[in-house]
Amino acid sequence: MSETEKKPKGYYIMMGMLIGLPIGVAMSTALGSFAYIGVGIAIGLPIGVAMEEEAKKKDQIRDVTPDEEKQRKKYLLGAVVLIGVLVLATLAFLFWNMGRD
Questions:
Q1: Is the pTM of this model over 0.85?
Q2: N or C: which end of the chain has fewer CB within 10 A?
Q3: Longest dimension (CA), the chain
């Protein structure tokens, strides 16, 4: 397998977490608690780890390039900012509704 066909380290772990996220959202919707989103991610994480280990055995994993590392850091920063904005918006909405009662 050529280097361009190999996936970067951490790729399958991310995919496993992305598989678990909709599971957590569905559980949260069905059970009425947003805490289950984390449970879905926790379900997806071992799936991703198992996929990553299987790919390592088949020599389908390569090291992350410096450009990919920079891109990952940008995405992480964007995700943290987005989550922060969503949390602040949720708190503002809750406080706004508390003042109306």
A1: no
A2: C
A3: 64
